[in-house]
Automatic annotation (TrEMBL):
Its EC number is 3.4.-.-. Residues 1-22 form the signal peptide. It catalyses: an L-aminoacyl-L-amino acid + H2O = 2 an L-alpha-amino acid. Belongs to the peptidase C69 family. This is Dipeptidase. GO terms for molecular function: cysteine-type exopeptidase activity; dipeptidase activity. Pfam families: Peptidase_C69. GO terms for biological process: proteolysis.
Length: 531
């Protein structure tokens, strides 16, 4: 009976879950950025919990237990369910919480991207005894560690002990983990639905590879780590059992003399989560092409033709990474905006692009115009972020989480310093069932929908509102940090209060600007004004 139930679950998830919920990650080492920051970033693509809350640092008593939750993503109406517990530590650090929590008070950043794993590895709740989802592992890492290496070691150890449970289509996961000094890519897989803590074997397999300091790495929902140098502990971390499932299932023969390839051993050979899928390759091509344009990247090339990481031809900055997250793959073979179906006769009979042409056409429009779908970087996001971690500044001031709610193509990034201790109500009150102009995410969603109706005209209206705000945030950053440092020298608490107040005022300004934009867009383009 049990095997039939598991088979049913497998068929359900395989047939009905699509890759529209994949996330894109870009991470840059300190020598690959214009100012020496370590940068991490992510688009959270799916209908996830985007309510941005600050969870403060806390002290705990001896013997306390920390709950382990399922359904932390908030992608449906299921509330987080407590499914286990682990021993608590004496003190947990403050962090910023969303469906995928991403940043803590010590400048530790975690960016997530689901990756495929072979069917035999998958674990299904509640049949499995594995309880550690990637979002729960990230929370524990943000609460308990300060460095990327320590975060990876903790997440790997917890997953081995308590079992890794894939929460996005039961697949594997990849994270970019960054601190003020270095960045890593961490990949983790389950070990099968029948694992239990008393089996005597680890409940996960995982590997991590350091991103060279002068390189950029990209995650687009596919494994990027292939060969593992077990003797190079400076640049690799891994579970002792990383090869065991591949041997057990016949995916690798240690006596063959062929080096073990993690990606080939555990990634699906076909299907939407395979590394050969065009929804993976299109985003990878777009970002590599943007940062290393002189290289003749093949847009249809196998993922293996793209290196794990690369040196950008121009050092990257926060605004450059923001643009990458907003990318619709324009001017590439994957651009839906550039499809010839959008061409219409002009006044003199010449063909021109329709003002309705958009890089983000919905399914009905694509079907009507016969436009093939190409997955852009700026997909159906709940939020996105770009983080800066800087070693030469105190944690409170050196860490900045630039975050935007909703689709990054339409959202505005607001900087939140590690020293900030609160977020604005309008940035944490989103209810997906009811529109509310007092919700920042609803304002971004409405503005994006209105712009997308007549994109060629209305996108300028949005940019005219957004660009001055983001530009001022970036231009004023040195001045803000000088003032924060002056306060910090006398009282770190005063610096934190200053940064918190600044964050709240900026959040409020952006929210009000977007609601005003929505009203302007309605007045300008609604009410049959497009006839």
């Amino acid at each position: 009976m049990r095997s039939w139930f598991v088979l049913f679950l497998f068929c359900f998830f395989t047939c009905f879950l699509s890759p529209s919920y994949g996330c894109t990650v870009v991470v840059a080492g300190r020598d690959a950025t214009v100012d020496g920051s370590v940068i991490a970033s992510q688009t959270a693509d799916g209908w996830y919990d985007s309510n941005l809350r600050y969870i403060p640092a806390m002290d705990h008593s001896a013997g306390d237990m920390a709950p382990v939750y399922l359904y932390l993503l908030g992608e449906d109406d299921r509330k987080p369910q407590r499914i286990g517990e682990i021993p608590q530590v004496s003190r947990t650090y403050g962090y910023f919480k969303t469906g995928y929590s991403s940043y803590n008070q010590h400048q530790l950043a975690i960016a997530e991207s689901t990756i495929g794993q072979k069917d035999e590895l998958k674990a299904f709740w509640p049949e499995t005894k594995a309880i550690m989802t990637i979002e729960q592992l990230a929370v524990f890492a943000l609460q308990r560690t300060k460095t990327a290496r320590d975060a990876i070691g903790l997440m790997g150890s917890l997953a081995e002990t308590y079992g890794f449970l894939g929460s996005c289509a039961n697949e594997g996961e990849a994270l970019a983990v960054a601190d003020p000094n270095e960045a890593w890519i961490f990949e983790i897989m389950s070990v099968g639905f029948d694992w239990s803590p008393d089996s005597g074997v680890p409940g996960a397999i995982w590997v991590a590879k350091k991103v060279p300091d002068n390189h950029v790495a990209v995650l687009a929902n596919a494994s990027r780590i292939d060969f593992i140098d077990v003797d190079d502990r400076e640049n690799y971390m891994f579970s002792d059992n990383y090869m065991e499932p591949a041997v057990r299932f016949g995916w690798y023969d240690p006596s063959s003399g062929v080096p073990f390839n993690w990606r080939k051993a555990y990634s699906p050979d076909s299907g939407v989560w395979a590394s050969s899928s065009m929804w993976v390759r299109g985003r990878t091509y777009g970002i590599y092409r943007e940062l290393a344009p002189s290289v003749n990247w093949d847009p249809y090339g196998e993922l293996g033709s793209y290196p794990f990481s690369f040196s950008p031809e121009k050092k990257v900055s926060v605004p450059i990474v923001m643009d990458l997250l907003r990318s619709t793959l324009k001017d590439t073979v994957f651009s839906m905006e550039d499809n010839q179906a959008w061409l219409v006769p002009g006044v003199n009979g010449e063909l021109r692009k329709s003002e309705l042409a958009t890089p983000l056409p919905d399914r009905a429009t694509r079907t009507l115009l016969n436009i093939p779908y190409s997955r852009p970087v700026a997909a159906k996001s709940s939020w996105s972020f770009v983080s800066q971690s800087r070693s030469w500044l105190p944690d409170d001031i050196g860490g900045v989480l630039w975050i935007g709610l909703g689709l990054p193509h339409f959202s505005c990034y607001v900087p939140i310093y590690s020293g900030s201790r609160d977020t604005l109500e309008s940035w944490r009150n989103f209810d997906p069932e009811f529109f509310d102009p007092l919700s920042m995410r609803w304002c971004v969603s409405l503005a994006g929908d209105l712009v997308n109706r007549v994109y060629q005209r209305a996108m300028k209206d949005l940019v005219d509102v957004r660009a001055p705000m983001e530009g001022e945030f970036i231009r004023s950053q040195p001045e803000v940090e000088r003032e924060a440092l002056d306060l910090y020298a006398h009282s770190p608490e005063s610096s934190s209060q200053f940064l918190t107040a600044l964050t709240l005022s900026r959040m409020d300004m952006v929210h009000k600007a977007y609601w005003s934009l929505c009203r302007k867009l309605i007045a300008k383009y609604a009410g049959n004004k497009l006839w």
